[in-house]
Amino acid sequence: MRSLNQRILFSASLVLFIFIVGTALTLDRAFYDSGQRALQDRMLGKLFLLMGEVEVDRKGSLSMPEELPALIEFEQLNSGVYAFITDQTNTLVWKSFSTLSIPIPSRAPLLEGEKKFEQIMLNDEPHFIYSFAVAWETDGGDYPFTFHVIIESASLEAQIDSYRTDLWGWLGVMGFLLLIMQMLVLHWGLRPMRQVSSELNAVESGVQESVQGLYPVELKRLTDNINSLIQHERKHQQRYRNALADLAHSLKTPLTILQGTIRTEKLSVNMKTVLDEQINRMDSIIQYQLRRAATAGSSPGTRLIALRPVVEKIVNTVNRAHYDKCPQIVIEIGSEFCLRVDEGDLMELLGNLIDNAFKWCRRTVTISAQCVHDDIVLKVEDDGPGVKQEEIGRLTERGVRADQAMPGHGIGLAIVRDIAQAYDGALFIEPGKNIGVSFIIRIKR
């Protein structure tokens, strides 16, 4: 289970279940033992009452009154209470009237003063028997007898079954209530975690810049470290871009001086052309590598940016640069299309594609967007001369360096490809519907 809430709830529920079952079994056993002890005391009391009714003469003959008012159960059939007496030879010397409904069990002789309580089966029904061996003193001597009392266990079993039903019922209700309370406590206890998760989503989507809530001490260090990490990453990115801007400025100055020197020096036309071409090539490579390094890529805090306003802004800018063409611009992008990208990266990506389309088009440039599953597919089409199939393979080949790109497409398309890949996207180049070429960018929403 990857959910912390589910882990804690499952663990606590398992502990609660084990505790309730253990408690129920313990209480059940305690009640059963208590019931047996109470039954033993009851049966021992009947034995003492039975002994009080017995008379033994000097010859050892045992006699019992015809009626036993204190032990009326012994005189009723199917009363569930029985009694009999045996002598030292284990010979039956007396039995109660109630024993007519059961067979007299055979018992082993006991020593004087010995007591024995056990469960036996009579008529395939469980019964408890309590035996007590005594020596009866008379003028003629001591005569050993063993008194036996039998009680059906059905009454005890009925009490135990009733107790078990009530016990498991109440424990089940208590367990359910405890589970509900546990879920409520867990929901309340994990509320700061859910709030942190919500704030992190807000930071990731660019709604807020940091985690701002007040949290318990256990989470405060975590939120403080997250905020420090976010601030550090932003400052690092800003320093990185500033350093690249300084580097670009530093490299631009020497290249400008070299270009000026070539124009003033007395060199052959061929030499000036070669040097000027190589300096321009160096400038293009430097600009490409700097732009590539400055790509922000997908990172927390990137805001959603509407595509259509950015496209319209770029089209207006490029249109002024190519005022001599004034092609027909078709923008098929709804207001609902948004991307979570850095605005500078989006301007660079679309700017290169739209500028390229303006350069090569004859009359029309079409810019469209559509959703495909979880991706947004951007398409920039022109009606220009197009690109040969073998050239498309070279343009989209993985690992092509900037200085190996084709003239007219290389540097800009390489930048577009790298920006798309920085956002887990891709660049595709396809022939147009009729003429020209289509540049397709697929990026996750």
UniProtKB/TrEMBL annotation:
A GO molecular function held by the record: phosphorelay sensor kinase activity
Gene3D superfamilies per UniProt: 1.10.287.130, Histidine kinase-like ATPase, C-terminal domain
Keyword Membrane in annotation: yes
EC number: 2.7.13.3
A single cellular component GO annotation: plasma membrane
Transmembrane segments: 167-190
Annotated SMART domains: HATPase_c (SM00387)
Superkingdom to which the source organism belongs: Bacteria
Keywords: Kinase, Membrane, Phosphoprotein, Transferase, Transmembrane, Transmembrane helix, Two-component regulatory system
Domain named Histidine kinase: residues: 246-445
PANTHER family in alphabetical order: SENSOR HISTIDINE KINASE YKOH, SENSOR PROTEIN PHOQ
Protein name: histidine kinase
Originating species: Nitrosomonas communis
Lineage: Bacteria, Pseudomonadati, Pseudomonadota, Betaproteobacteria, Nitrosomonadales
